[in-house]
Amino acid sequence: MLAVRLENRSVSVRSEAPPRRPPGSALIRMLQAGICNTDLELQRGYYGFRGTPGHEFVGEVLEADDRTWIGERVVGEINLACGRCEWCAQGLGRHCPKRKVLGIVKHPGAFRELLTLPERNLHRIPKKIAIGHAVFVEPLAAACEILDQATIPRGAVVAVLGDGKLGLLVGQVLKAHGAEVHQYGRHKEKLRIAADLDIDTRMIRKKTPQAAYQWVVDATGSSAGLRQAITMTKPRGAVILKSTMHGLVRLDTAPVIVNEITLVGSRCGRFEPALKLLETGRVKVESLISEVIPLARAREAFRRAAAPGVLKVLLHA
Amino acid sequence: MLAVRLENRSVSVRSEAPPRRPPGSALIRMLQAGICNTDLELQRGYYGFRGTPGHEFVGEVLEADDRTWIGERVVGEINLACGRCEWCAQGLGRHCPKRKVLGIVKHPGAFRELLTLPERNLHRIPKKIAIGHAVFVEPLAAACEILDQATIPRGAVVAVLGDGKLGLLVGQVLKAHGAEVHQYGRHKEKLRIAADLDIDTRMIRKKTPQAAYQWVVDATGSSAGLRQAITMTKPRGAVILKSTMHGLVRLDTAPVIVNEITLVGSRCGRFEPALKLLETGRVKVESLISEVIPLARAREAFRRAAAPGVLKVLLHA
C-alpha cells in the first residue's frame, strides 16, 4: 500500500506492508484526509517526528472485532488512550498521559491507504455529510472544544483573531452557538469566506480595539497575535489559546495580571458536537477546501498546503 | 509634614505642605505603612513613577465629610474608582479604567504623615487586630483574590510557589480556606515561617513534580518560576499568576495548549475577607515583619526591604 513518510524535512510516498490490526482496533481504508498546520510543523521537524503523519481523515472500515463496523464510513478521534487512568475514567482520554496520537505521537497517521485505530475511537458519519466535509470533523471538534472549556453566553460578543482554517471554523462554531462574532484577519479573500457566512469581519490594521472584548480567541498561530489578543481583552476577560506556537513565546504578563485576564489553553475536542454542526449545516466547510490531490502526489500537496492564501488541502486515496 | 519621595531611582524624605482634603475624602494621619515589592519596583523606575509611594497603611481619620469616621483607625482600598462606569456598577472599581491608585497611579501614597483617600475606600479596623498587623490587609486581600477568581474546593491540594511575603500570605489564605497547601520555596528561613504555621513546605530543588497539581499559584516573581509552575500543573489545571514581572516574559505556550492549562492573572482583592482572617487569627503575620523603621529614615527602610532574606519592612510615623 502507499504511505506518506516525513523524514529530514522531506515528504515522500513509498510502498509499505499494510498495518497489522491489533485486537479492538479497526482496519480502515482511507478515503480522504486533510493536511493540517500541525502536519506542516511535523515536516519542519517539530517533536522530532519521523513517520507517517495525518490525523484528519475519513475512511471505510474493512475489518473490526465488532462486525457492525464493517463497511461503515467513519471518522476517528485521534488520541489512543490507555482506558485505565484517572483521565480516561473522567472521559478525558485526550489527556491520558500514556496516550498515543494518530499521526503525531507513536501511532502512524492517516496519510496512507490503510490505517488502524481503536474501534472505540470511531464515529459513523451521518449520511447528510459529504466525505470531503467529514474530514473537517477533527479540526471542527477542536474549535468546539472552546465551548467545553469556557462558559460563553449566547449573545456574547467574541473576537476571533485569525482567518486561517482553524480561525474560520472557530468563527462559525461560535456563531452557531449564538455569539456575535467579530472575525479579525489580514487576508481579504479569507475574511470574505466568513463574511459570506454572515460573520462580521474586520481587517487587522495596525491598531485593534483595546480592552474591548470579554472573550477573545487567538487562532493566529503567532506570538504577535497572542500579544494583540491580550490587549483586546477587557479586565476579567478571557483569551482562548487555540493555536500552538513553538519555542518560547515572548509575552507581557503585566496586563494579564493587572487586568486579571484568564488565558485558556485549548486543544482537541469531542467529535459529537462537530458531527452535529456539519449534519445540520450550521457549519459549512466547502469554501475552506482549496484543493484535492491524490495521495501519490502528497509531496506536491504538502507544498500547496504551505503556500500563502491556500486553505485546506485534501488528499484522496 | 514629612513625605517620602521617589525620583531618579533614589528615595528621599522631605517636608511638604499637608494635602488638601477633597469633598468625600478623609484626611488621614498615617500610623504605619508597609513597603511592598511594587514600591521597590517603582524605585527601580517602572511605570516612570515619580512622587510619594505607599499603598499598604494603617491610619487615623482626622477629617471627613461623614463625621463618624473621625478618630477611627482605618485601612483603605487603594483603587480610587470613578463610581460611574460599567466596572464600578459591578462592584469592580478595582478595574475602573479611570481609576487612580494610591501611591502607584496619579494619587500620592501613604509614605507621608498625612494622606487623603475617598471615604468609601475606608474600612474600620476591628479592635482585635494590632496596628502593625492591619498593614497586611492590602496584600492579604490580594492573596484572598485567588478565591474570588478560582473555585478551589476545600480539601484540594494546591502548590504555592514562592516563599516571599506574598507567597507566605497566599499559603495561609489557602490553608484557612481548607486546601492542602504545598509551599515551595528556595529559602529555608522563610519556609520555616510557613512550617511553623503547619503548612507542608518543600525546598525547590532542580526538579519539581511534573503535572502533579490541579492548582498552582505562582508567587515567585520570576519568569523561571512561572515556567516551572506550568510544568507542575495537571492537564486542565490552573496556574494563578500572583506576581508581576516586567518586560516580556519568555513562556513556552505549547504545554499550556497541549495540556489545556488555564493561566489566571490575579491582582488586588476585597478587604473584607482579609480583615476577617486577621480578626479570627486564621492568618498570622507577626513573623512576616522583619523591621519597623521611622518614616524619617525611609531611605534606610527601602534599602533594608530590598536586602536578601528580609520580609516586610514597616514604616511608622
Query: What is the N-to-C order of secondary-structure elements of chain A (H for helix, E for strand)?
Result: EEEHEEEHEEEEHHEHEHEEHEEHEHEHE
What would CATH call the class of the largest domain in chain A?
Alpha Beta
**Dominant shape of chain A:** globular
- Kindly estimate the percentage of residues of chain A that lie in beta strands according to DSSP: 25-35%
User: What is the number of beta strands of chain A?
Assistant: 19
Instruction: Give the CATH superfamily of the largest domain in chain A.
Output: Medium-chain alcohol dehydrogenases, catalytic domain
The CATH topology of the largest domain in chain A comes to: Quinone Oxidoreductase, Chain A, domain 1
Q: Main interface pair?
A: A-B, 37 and 37 residues
The appropriate CATH architecture of the largest domain in chain A is Alpha-Beta Complex
Counting structural domains of chain A, the number is: 2
Helix segment tally of chain A: 10
The whole-angstrom Rg of chain A is: 19 Å
In terms of per-residue confidence, which ranges of chain A show pLDDT below 50 for 5 or more consecutive residues? none
Assembly form of the protein? homodimer
Distance between the termini of chain A: 10 Å
Question: Structural class of the secondary elements of chain A?
Answer: alpha/beta
**Helix coverage percent of residues of chain A?**
25-40%
| Global mean pLDDT of chain A | 96
Largest sheet, strands/sense/barrel of chain A: 7 strands, mixed
